[in-house]
Amino acid sequence: MDGNGRWASRRFLPRIAGHKQGVDVLRRFVKACAARGVAVLTVFAFSSENWQRPADEVSGLMDLLAIALSREVPQLKADGVALHFVGDRSRLSPKVAAGMARAEAETAGNTRLVLNVCFNYGGRWDIVQAAAKAAAKGLTMTEANLDAAMALAHVPHPDLIIRTGGEKRLSNFLLWQAAYAELYFSDKLWPEFDDAALDAAIEDYHSRERRFGKTSQQLEPTAAQRAAA
Question: Does the active-site annotation cover 50?
Answer without folding.
Answer: yes
